[in-house]
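A favour, since you know our structure tokens better than I do. Could you add the entry underneath, on a fresh line?
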Amino acid sequence: MRLTILGGGGFRVPLVYGALLADRGEGRVTEVVLHDLDAGRLHTVARVLAEQASAVVDAPRVTTTTDLDDALRGADFVFSAIRVGGLEGRADDERVALAEGVLGQETVGAGGVAYGLRTVPVAVDIARRVARLAPDAWVINFTNPAGLVTEAMSRHLGDRVIGICDSPVGLGRRIARVLGADPREAWIDYVGLNHLGWVRGLRVAGRDELPRLLADPGLLGSFEEGRLFGADWLRSLGAVPNEYLHYYYFNRETVRAYQEAEKTRGAFLRDQQARFYEEAGRADVSALGAWDRTRNEREATYMAENRETSGAGEREADDLSGGYEKVALALMRAIARDERTTLILNVRNQGTLSVLDPDAVIEVPCLVDANGAHPVAVAPLPGHATGLVCSVKAVEREVLAAAESGSRTTAVKAFALHPLVDSVEVARRLVDGYTAVHPGLAYLK
């Protein structure tokens, strides 16, 4: 079975390959094709993978290419993890937004809108090529903003594109662990959009254990989201939000923390990864060792400003091991081997949430089999969550419209409608600022 990884020179590719190395079942991936526009990064990541596979019998064969069409031909699965504009683009997204006093995070707020406007045209081109060159392939999208990009690609690939994210998985795992339950045996009632969802229940043997968590201040203070949001706020919501909702519920505090930080997250990762690729590219250095050291630092500093603002403290050791690669592998196995499983995924709504149309991509538990991912019916969202989900989905639709039409006016509308951008004038300045620094937005007229 052949897996093509787009963004194959990306820093987190070894996580995916490591998961493949551990998969010894029938019908496993036997060939991995790495595609990237940067040949140097491809070479470095291939060195890391070679070290990972050095002691593994029958490790999946790895090839590299900078030709997208060659990478797609013959693929059974396509894993998309591209970053249009690179980490320099992410740093610019943050800088332009923070100068206007609004959030520049890569998937939330003004930064997410800017990143979406850059990424959607590229993702649509990839989807069209997949439809032409590998029509039977399944596309697993991790490219951010994951829900928005998955919806853009679904217009050309239908249900053969599925978005993944590790945030809901990590949240469900932490809640189950606190409640003394095995995450593999728990049903997680999670619903929303990517980076905008809530755990509303966690059922073990048919019993919802979430009320027990919400009623116990000690338990609430014993895991990351409990400390991040605070026990009182979680009890008010009657649910546990995805960590990214901290940007909404504590927006002013977070923007202030980002403005006062020595570096934004994007600038930190840009500089950190530049050091990694320089070090790991040297012949006298263990590329895998350099990658391990860099990854540990990256994971430990994840959402550091939010945790500092809330007093949440350091991340727990169990949360430093990633997770999205395990979701990707479980998804591929379920489809390729018809190993039926349940995963929280980004898929077309198909009537699951009545407040959104059938084609809107949402993030919910899905039953997965050889025919793909099928969203499970969920109860309606409470009013406060419905309003936020509908508002952000409306913004995503304006981003898609702007990317399709090239309309600068529609791009301004996308920024202005976002609940974390509080002014049409700010929206206009954001478009001016982003088009000035991003060549990828030159299509906006």
Summary: The longest strand covers residues 196-204. The mean pLDDT is 94. Residues 109-133 form the longest helix (25 residues). The two ends are 44 Å apart (CA to CA).
